[in-house]
Batch of 2 targets.
Target 1
Amino acid sequence: MLKYAVPLALFALLGVFLFVGLQRDPSYVPSPLIGKQAPEFTLPSLQDASYPVASKELLGRPWVLNVWGTWCGGCRQEHDTLLAIARTQAVPIVGLNWKDDSAAAQEWLRTLGNPYAVVASDPEGRVAIDWGVYGAPETFLIGPDGKVLFKHIAPMTLEVWNQEFLPRIRAATAGATTPTQG
Amino acid sequence: MTFMPMLRAMLLALVLGAALPALAIDAERAFDDPALQERYEQINRELRCLVCQNQTIADSNATLAQDLRREVREMISAGKSDDEIRTFMIERYGDFVLYRPRMTAGNFLLWAAPVLLLLLGTFIGLRFIRKQAAQVNEDGPEAGQS
């Protein structure tokens, strides 16, 4: 009997690998930026091109970078969720308007509401490349030390926000405030 | 359709199809210098377009592929080496961006698997042959002949 048990076990293991492999999304590319220092950027603000948006100014607190464009269907889909998240005022949401028409983007925020603390305009897509963006919407969580904590690729949902983002935000703020108190 | 015209049509389709990869995706050449142009095209053929994953950035006209080609062009102009350009892409998009995978600590087992499996197979095979030979010797030559 043992003679057959080993091949059978190996076959079952192969089956498990195949099954797990089938459940995975092949279009999902894990970001090499997780745990690393977030790329710095200074870009003109969408609403006022003379006002620069600098990532350095956000150091010292967790923040969220949401990559969007008016051409992106998933961005329209997640917009109401972003508005709801912004109302909780947990963290500032910084928008990165990716390869978009500024007038159309401003119109979008006027009519649908603006969840962003500030929106950086990246019409050439250079900052997006630095961040390894390949498909909007993408949402990054950046820690107080400027490190990328998490990346979500797909429209934001409250479920993802509550399960993936909020616990990390709490941990990051706890970690950042403890040393200054002690 | 009779046989000959059909065959001719199929041949024509085949020849045209074979010529397709020769078409460059950019409207204009990126470099006047043929050596630089060759390097540019070579690098593009090795980088994956992340939006349309089964195409290289040389094949795809997705906006991201256009942007990545622009980055490659600018880095070549700036005198960056091929390795530096590849590292630039890996730092941002991970190893998946490479069409020709590198050996890393994470995928070492995958690279070593053929050799390891061959060794394992040889070991099992040898053991089996020895066992058979031992059996024959134990039974004696007469029993083996029967």
Target 2
Amino acid sequence: MSSFVLQAAPQAETPEPDYLTEGRTVGSWLFTTDHKRVGILYMLTITLFFVIGGMAATLMRIELATPAGDLMSSPAYNKLFTIHGVIMVWFFLIPSIPNVLGNFLIPLMIGARDVAFPRLNIASWYIFVFGGTFALYAILSGGVDTGWTFYTPYSSTYANGHVIAMAVGILIGGFSSIATGLNFIVTIHKMRAPGMTWFRLPLFIWAMYTTSLILVLATPVLAITLILVCLERAFGVGIFDPTLGGDPLLFQHLFWFYSHPAVYIMILPGMGVVSELIACFARKRIFGYRFVAFASVAIAVFGFLVWGHHMFVSSQSVYAGMIFSILSFLVSIPSAIKVFNWTATLYKGSIRFDTPMMYALGFIGLFTVGGLTGLFLASLAMDVHLTDTYFIIAHFHYIMVGGMVMAYLGGLHFWWPKMSGRRYPEVLARLSALIIFLGFNLTFFPQFVLGVMGMPRRYHTYPEEFQLLNVLSSAGASILAVGYVLPLCYLLWSLRHGKRAEPNPWGATGLEWTMPSPPPRDNFASIPRVTEVPYAYNAQAAETEIRSEEAIHV
Amino acid sequence: MNVSLTGMWQLFPSASEWAPRMDILFMGLLGVSLLVAFAVAVCIVVFGIRYRRGSSANRTPGDGSTMPIEIVWTTVPLAIFVALFVWAAVLYFKMARPPGDSVEVHVVAKQWMWKIQHPGGRREINELHVPMGRPVVLVMISQDVIHSFYVPAFRVKQDVLPGRYTRQWFIPSRIGSYHLFCAEYCGTDHSRMIGTVTVMHPAEYARWQETGDVGTSMAAVGRGLFMSRGCSGCHSSRSAIAAPLLDGIYGKPVALSDGGTVIADEGYIRDSILLPNKHITAGYSPVMPTFQGQLGEEEITQLIAYIRSLTFKPETSP
């Protein structure tokens, strides 16, 4: 033991401590104000929530392999889909890319030493953990069976279970979202390095900025809505329940006024990541940079005006339905523009198929399917048949899982060398990406067909003719589960055994790649001065480089 | 092969006049989607192969503005989307407007069953019998939480709300039995709140209405309630208390004491029974007691059926 200390002493002088090694105690992590460490804390927490939400999904898919309810009771099944929805939406997807990659990368990418309010940043993590604890308490003490949408008057009057505890958990978690969003907005406005103009920002920053705007503007509405549900449930104040003089549809308006923009909270960051990956691995400047940037802004703005498309069969006015329908078609235009621009970026590129690129291409494919099936649901008459069926389930999983989770994993692999200072095993990683892509499609594509056949969502038991497709879906889910466990294992493995990463293993542009991997505590020894456009890649130069390398080897 | 194909087709039964129109719309949407998805996929695959690292493809950057192509791939989808919107909106608009000569069936949803009342008095639970080729309109209300009346073979779905009547209509077009699902999550036995919709020949349907569990007509039951629950004590020309006469009121505008008017439809009459102070008829004082908690949704629909039946009988004295 003592000899180890003696040996370690001279070594400590040579490398400057990075953000991971500058304090090794638990306290140094729990009381950190370093945006990079806060990002890592969020990563650990949301991984835990992903596992919980994933286990709920696994149990549901096992149950749904047969038409009868033979594995569990209906109340148990109903609680499982509520757990799955609540945990995945509020405690995994919404914080996933913003709070993990956003926290880690925003200051690095814009040339700052930290976020604008470092203490608010760590406070937001504590608030998040506190809210998550409430949600876990609600689950462990008996659960909630309202579904993640908490429709009234079921949630406010009729449901058993710990609705209030769950709502309070989500409410508290919302404050963490607001704190993070505010922090990012101020950081991006005020802390850009000299020369880092708005149109020199990486598209990931544009995505994070627009996401933050939605977080700050929409989350308070969710808070109000949940408080109203709790008031009616606890004190019988008539707001939503018609027997108390309330209006049940008021809840849906309030809820979707938050939750539809929240859908964009769950996809815009993924789009930002994919823009980075496509540019880097195609060695091209992103095609139509300004279009992609402004598409994010357009999505954020229009996203606030389409909530009524969740209510086409609710008895909402026909004319209101028409307005919401046309606006929903319009909001799909900026998403389409992004897909076309990413595709065009590949043209005349020098394309490498490393793991992050595989995730990015998978994202484009799955997001396109998710987006196009959204057109079916924006179409008024078509939505009458398809809403509340498995078509909806398949549609939003293509966006949320096929889109956001693929982008999160792609981003995690891309920046993993920067975050951990280690390389992951490339072949295994590519294999996992492939398994996830195949498993995902096998899980969710049959659900589109189930929806067209008319199988309603949230069904514990179902008629026999739906079984074949449900079995396929459950089989796909087991493949998907393997695909998700693999990265968890090899990324952990790489922390100790992975090859040490160079500062810029992908040859990428961007300020984050100019510093050592992992970065030092204060990021930049001196604040850089930015003089060029983002994504200053050159496919021709990249090719020439390969040729000259080959020539040397020959 | 042929057998399996028809077998496949039976998984998507089509049994109302909405269904083929909806299916054409679906095919239109599917066509546009496949076209876009195929174009993107082909571009990604072709670019991915042609411009893979180390390939000898020409990478000389093009000159000229990217603006024209950006405009093209913004405006072309926009035009297609607006066309799709109009197509779907027109159909939706038709689906929201029941014709006047419909067979009217009353549906009360409750956790976890569908209770059906036919005007002639026949009642069903979790079953609905309808005649082929005639427009059927369902007038629906929930006794507790939100449910949704969904018949996939008809391609119709409408949420059923507490405290408010909603309607949906369809013309059944094929004899047979089809699934009825509750599509809005409503609690523990949501997935067992299912039933069967049976489409019958009109003649058979007429016979069916006369047989089995036939009670008195809804209006007649309502008339009984009108007297036994004391409505007739005031809403009568012989009453000492001034209450509006209800003869011929259904579907007509009613002047209110606050100067407004309201059409006396089901919703208005239901509100007047349960929340009598919500709309005070002009010239009357708010003296009516509430019947909240004393009448079930089915009884209310029977009362409404009775009040409706008074329309063309100006001199009825209950």
